[in-house]
Design a protein that fits this description.
The chain has a single domain (22-205), classed as Formiminotetrahydrofolate cyclodeaminase monomer, up-and-down helical bundle (Four Helix Bundle (Hemerythrin (Met), subunit A)), CATH 1.20.120. It is elongated and about 75 Å long. 80% of the residues lie in helices and 0% in strands. The chain is built from six helices and no strands. By secondary structure, it is mostly helical.
Length: 211
């Protein structure tokens, strides 16, 4: 619908910096996650066909196939995040003069907030999957491209954390605290586990390059 990923990098950054409500932090996080995943994938591309890594080539090819899918999914989530924000933006603009209007607005808002949480949570899940792949690219892939695995892990962690804020800003406004709590719990658990895993990849790469 929006076609943000069809724009040039310059065009995307320009609309991101404007007063337009979308793309925002969620869409930007999805794009950064896709770039991070692609960097891991690049490590794989530079490994396949090298005699030195013949014993892991089948593993690398399988990882690349998964990374191709993840990249595409994260790019799709750039537009999906904007689409999910649309009903929320409309809900904020609903009238609330009468008790009936207030009740209707509250009902629509609650549904829109849940929808708006769904996409950033999915971005987080995909970033978590990307971090898992990058761990393996870093462990098995070409040492000449090791720095790219470290950058990819850092990008995916940034995207993971960035998307979490789009979850939290929406759960904060929800009246259904049980559902809000479930969303927050999932987000926090992913941040704790996969943030640490991304850090380990980065630290391992850094130490290897410093030696």
């Amino acid at each position: 619908m929006y076609g943000f990923t069809e724009k040039s990098s310059r065009e995307f950054v320009e609309v991101l910096s404007s007063k337009e409500p979308v793309p925002g932090g969620g869409g930007a996080s999805a794009l950064v996650g896709a770039v991070g995943c692609a960097l891991g994938n690049m490590v794989g591309s530079l490994t396949v066909g090298k005699k030195k890594y013949a014993d892991v080539e089948a593993d690398i090819i399988a990882l690349k196939e998964k990374a191709d899918i993840l990249q595409a999914q994260l790019l799709e989530l750039v537009d999906k995040d904007a689409e999910a924000f649309e009903p929320l933006a409309k809900a904020y603009g609903m009238p609330k003069e009468t008790d009936e209007e207030k009740a209707k607005k509250a009902e629509v808002m609650e549904a829109a907030l849940k929808t708006a949480c769904g996409v950033p949570l999915e971005i987080m899940r995909k970033c978590a999957e990307a971090i898992e792949l990058i761990e393996q690219f870093a462990a098995k892939g070409s040492r000449l491209a090791l720095s790219d695995a470290g950058v990819g892990a850092s990008f995916c962690k940034a995207a993971l954390y960035g998307a979490s804020l789009n979850v939290f800003i929406n759960t904060k406004a929800m009246t259904d605290r049980e559902t809000a709590g479930k969303f927050n719990k999932e987000a926090l658990e992913m941040m704790e586990e996969y943030g640490s895993r991304a850090d380990r990849v980065f630290d391992t790469v850094k130490k290897s390059l410093e030696a």
